[in-house]
Amino acid sequence: MGRPRALTIVTIAGAAMASGAVLVTLTGNGFPEWLFFSVLLTVLAGGVRTLLVARGRAGRTSDQARRLGTVDPETVARQAVQEERRRLSADIAERLRRALTTIADEAEAGQEADDPRPMLARIHQEATAATTEL
Questions:
Q1: Measured between alpha carbons, how far is 78 from 80 in angstroms, rounded to an integer?
Q2: What pTM value is reported for the model?
Q3: Confidence (pLDDT) at 42
Q4: Terminus-to-terminus CA distance in the chain, angstroms?
């Protein structure tokens, strides 16, 4: 349960003070009774507000629990597995695409080189890195 906002507190206290003033005026009592009634009504109003907020939250939680109770765990698990497979497939495709692009760029750049060994080492290193990640 969240903390009440300042406007809520001021509204409750103001209404309690006004109600306390009305009670004191009707009964003919003085400041101590007004203060007592104001504090008493503020506490009561705060308690009622807390009860209403808790009741609303309990109702929402109960509705959510009821909805979750109707869900088939196997269906949810199957959907989660399918989603994870799609994600992994996209990750693998992206990594392979990146590796093959790098290898193609290295091969193209190395065609003009006098010594192809450094180019072949970089291609081998990229292929090894891609394979390790997979």
A1: 5
A2: 0.45
A3: 78
A4: 46
Name which of 7, 45, 39 is nearest 23 in CA terms.
39
**Residue type at 83?**
E
Residue 93 phi/psi, 5° resolution? -60, -40
Helix or strand holding residue 134 (H, E): none
Residue 120: what residue type?
A: L
Alpha-carbon distance of 36 to 120, in angstroms, equals 90
List of residues 6+ apart from 4 with CB closer than 8 A: 46, 49
Does the pLDDT value for residue 1 go beyond 70?
A: no
Angle between helices 31-69 and 6-27 (to 10 degrees): 140
pLDDT in tens, 69-122: 888 888 889 999 999 999 999 999 998 898 888 888 888 877 777 887 888 888
